[in-house]
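Exercise 7. Given the encoded structure of a 382-residue chain, write a plausible sequence.
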């Protein structure tokens, strides 16, 4: 190589290598100190984007874990209350059996009936006070039923079923349905409250139905294959309204256990109405032998009804537990995937840092050596 006093290629090359090694040292320090392999978009934009989405999912699943825990607590409260009611029914059955026997007079049956009526009142009180976050669990709920629809929202047009959340839909609410075939967007509006919710819908395959939850307004529409998603439904042309049914039904409570809005991301539990009237014993007494006979039969039926309700609660508890386990596994694996994408492999990065630090030290020495080479030319001038 020609030795020149106007350029120092060796020093330039050594300086470039020194800068590259120093940049690598800075990157390694950033990765080790932050714990992230990808600490900015320029490091790995695609991994950062995927990891961000996974982090959002993990947060949603963490909330789902809390929801499932709350569901378990709610079911335990309901089951505990029904356990006490079951004990009360056993005592009432004992009292009715006593009143059925001829060794007691009607006067004594009156004494027995006093306790019997108090137990009836306590049974109903327990059912009414079994609450979770001020929500009565065993008090039932007024059932909301479909009242009437316009011609375009019948089963012939593919609207197979309408179901309502009694916590969000009130008696005599009216709804409008609009559908844009170009975007497949269906919009349902509660014309009383003004609340609107929209979902993407499509015609189900022949013989199947699709269920769409318009959660903001408490309406679920079930569409059959008769629904034509190529035909618009103009706003304010097709409506349906609802009517509160005088008969109370179970309280439906829904828990979010996923990250989306599909039916599979939620669990809906139906908690029975438990009081003297719902159990069919509200008007019973044991003041006479005949009345005690009637009460005894009614209590047996009530116990069967209560046992069935407790069996449902037990089934819900089992389901919720499996859902909790599933959420925990999903969250663990999602977090592991996110970690693989952007977290630092500390041992590997420390190795890189050490190697690059040696290169920096060597680069500094080589730059110093290269800067001394042109001094050889001065000897030629002596």
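Solution.
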């Amino acid at each position: 190589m020609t030795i020149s006093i106007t350029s120092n290629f060796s020093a330039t090359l050594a300086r470039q290598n020194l800068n590259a090694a120093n940049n690598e040292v800075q990157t390694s320090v950033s990765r080790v100190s932050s714990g992230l392999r990808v600490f900015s978009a320029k490091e790995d934009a695609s991994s950062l984007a995927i990891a961000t989405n996974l982090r959002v999912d993990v947060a949603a699943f963490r909330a789902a874990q809390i929801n499932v825990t709350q569901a378990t607590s709610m079911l335990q409260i309901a089951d505990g209350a029904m356990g006490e009611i079951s004990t009360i029914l056993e005592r009432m059955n004992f009292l009715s059996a006593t009143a059925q026997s001829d060794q007691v007079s009607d006067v004594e049956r009156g004494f027995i009936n006093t306790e019997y009526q108090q137990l009836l009142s306590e049974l109903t009180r327990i059912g009414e006070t079994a609450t979770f976050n001020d929500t009565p669990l065993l008090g039932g709920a007024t059932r909301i039923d479909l009242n009437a629809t316009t011609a375009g929202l019948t089963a012939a047009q593919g609207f197979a079923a309408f179901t309502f959340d009694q916590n969000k839909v009130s008696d005599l609410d009216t709804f409008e349905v609009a559908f844009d075939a170009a975007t497949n967007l269906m919009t349902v509006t509660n014309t009383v409250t003004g609340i609107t919710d929209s979902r993407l819908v499509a015609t189900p395959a022949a013989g199947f139905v699709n269920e769409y939850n318009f959660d903001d307004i408490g309406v679920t529409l079930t569409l059959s294959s008769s629904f034509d998603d190529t035909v618009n439904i103009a706003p304010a042309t097709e409506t349906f309204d609802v009517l509160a049914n005088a008969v109370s039904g179970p309280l439906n409570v829904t828990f979010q256990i996923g990250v989306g809005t599909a039916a599979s991301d939620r669990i809906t539990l139906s908690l029975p109405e438990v009081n003297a009237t719902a159990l069919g014993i509200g008007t019973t007494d044991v003041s006479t032998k005949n009345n005690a006979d009637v009460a005894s039969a009614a209590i047996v039926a009530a116990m069967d009804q209560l046992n069935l309700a407790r069996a449902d609660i037990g089934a819900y508890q089992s389901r919720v537990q499996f859902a909790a386990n599933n959420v925990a596994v999903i969250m663990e694996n999602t977090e592991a995937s996110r970690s693989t994408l952007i977290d630092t492999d500390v041992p590997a990065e420390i190795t890189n840092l050490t190697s690059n630090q040696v290169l920096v030290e060597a680069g500094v020495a080589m730059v110093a050596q290269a800067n001394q080479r042109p001094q050889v030319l001065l000897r030629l001038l002596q």
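Remark. The mean pLDDT is 83. Students should compare their own answers with the one above.
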